[in-house]
């Protein structure tokens, strides 16, 4: 077996392989998937000298622990967390050299939800439809990490960055999301639309890679009939019968039968992927569109 591999010592609550996703397959019912905080994942790859298509690991809340079988360069970005190598403190947001057999531990997120772990050469699991991303909705891509799993690594293709610490945008204390109304805002009362653009909602603990569920004021419908299923995009804000918004993220279904009151600006979606349960959410009218 090749020594270009990572052994998973501690998988954490949910650690998955992610890259830039598999856009362009919605007509087949396949979501885009990919890293929820794309800028953080891309930064981690650049720090270790990987190209933009390299796969990284995305952790959820409590991190993970890994043991490389050969010396590698790693970088941890996204949610701030404690990083150690064999129990000794190591840099977060900067390249770190890890010798063969040492244990890299990515600790619990201090802020935010998801950390990104890049390894020189990238995680080289077999791609599916052009992507190595784990898709929790369709089941495409590699399964979430489990203790004892072994992940193959590619050959390094570049030199790691020469920085002490790379600046990063911090996880949001309050999530302000710019939205374009529609296509089904007419299914809601005028008061509900005003409330959508003025009230405070909160991130629900039921949120996941499929969507950010919220709690807060109910948005009343002006129309009570059923809506035929139609295509939805990354960033679509769907309102189920309970009347509180759900913001679709990377593993969202490609069609839905509940009205979409608006679509979040694509540039605001990485922050949505880092919003912890209880985070305040405000929707404001703005220009732009969600991810396709």
Largest sheet: 7 strands, mixed, barrel
| Inertia-based shape | elongated
What's the helical proportion of residues? under 10%
Radius of gyration: 20 Å
- N-to-C span: 39 Å
Show unreliable segments: none
- Count of individual helical segments: 3
Helix and strand content put the structural class at mainly beta
Number of E-state strands: 20
Mean pLDDT: 94
Tell me the series of helices and strands, N- to C-terminal.
EEHEEEEEEEEEEHEEEEEEEHE
Spatial ordering of strands, largest sheet: 12-19-16-17-14-13-20
Strand content: 25-35%
Protein name: Biotin-dependent carboxyltransferase family protein
Pfam families: CT_A_B (PF02626)
Keywords: ATP-binding, Hydrolase, Nucleotide-binding
Organism: Streptomyces cellulosae
Task: Please provide a written account of the structure.
It is a single chain. The chain is mostly beta strands and 292 residues long. The protein has three helices and 20 strands. The strands form four sheets. Strands 12-19-16-17-14-13-20 form a seven-stranded mixed beta barrel. The chain has a six-stranded antiparallel beta sheet with strand order 7-6-9-4-1-11, with no helix packed on it. Pfam families: CT_A_B. This is Biotin-dependent carboxyltransferase family protein.
Short description:
The protein has 292 residues and is mainly beta. The chain is built from three helices and 20 strands.
What's the topology here?
Elements: E1 5-10, E2 16-18, H1 38-47, E3 56-58, E4 64-68, E5 72-78, E6 81-85, E7 88-90, E8 96-98, E9 104-109, E10 115-119, E11 150-152, E12 174-181, H2 190-196, E13 201-203, E14 211-215, E15 230-231, E16 236-238, E17 246-248, E18 255-256, E19 260-264, H3 269-273, E20 280-285
Parallel strand pairs: 12-20
Antiparallel strand pairs: 1-4, 1-11, 2-3, 3-10, 4-9, 5-8, 5-10, 6-7, 6-9, 12-19, 13-14, 13-20, 14-17, 15-18, 16-17, 16-19
């Amino acid at each position: 077996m090749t020594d270009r591999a990572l052994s998973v010592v501690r998988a954490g609550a949910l650690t998955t392989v992610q890259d830039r996703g598999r856009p362009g397959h919605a007509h087949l019912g396949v979501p885009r998937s990919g890293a929820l905080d794309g800028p953080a994942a891309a930064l981690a790859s650049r720090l270790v000298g990987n190209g933009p298509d390299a796969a990284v690991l995305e952790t959820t809340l409590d991190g993970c622990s890994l043991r490389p079988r050969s010396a590698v360069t790693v970088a941890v970005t996204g949610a701030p967390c404690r990083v150690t190598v064999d129990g000794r403190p190591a840099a977060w947001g900067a390249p770190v050299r890890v010798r063969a057999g040492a244990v890299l531990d990515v600790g619990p997120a201090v802020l935010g939800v998801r950390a990104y772990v890049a390894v020189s050469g990238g995680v080289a699991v077999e791609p599916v439809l052009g992507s190595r991303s784990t898709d929790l909705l369709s089941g495409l891509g590699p399964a979430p990490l489990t203790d004892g799993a072994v992940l193959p690594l590619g050959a390094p293709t570049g030199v790691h960055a020469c920085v002490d610490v790379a600046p990063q945008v911090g996880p949001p204390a309050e999530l302000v999301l710019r939205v374009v109304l529609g296509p089904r805002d007419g299914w809601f009362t005028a008061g509900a639309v005003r409330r959508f653009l003025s009230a405070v909602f909160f991130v629900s603990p039921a949120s996941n890679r499929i969507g950010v569920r919220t709690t807060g004021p109910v948005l009343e419908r002006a129309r009570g009939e059923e809506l035929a299923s139609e295509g939805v995009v990354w960033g679509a804000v769907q309102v189920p019968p309970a009347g509180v918004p759900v913001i679709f993220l990377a593993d969202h279904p490609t069609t839905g039968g509940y009205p979409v009151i608006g679509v979040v600006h694509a540039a605001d979606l990485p922050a949505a992927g880092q919003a912890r349960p209880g985070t305040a959410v405000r929707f404001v009218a703005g220009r732009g569109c969600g991810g396709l």
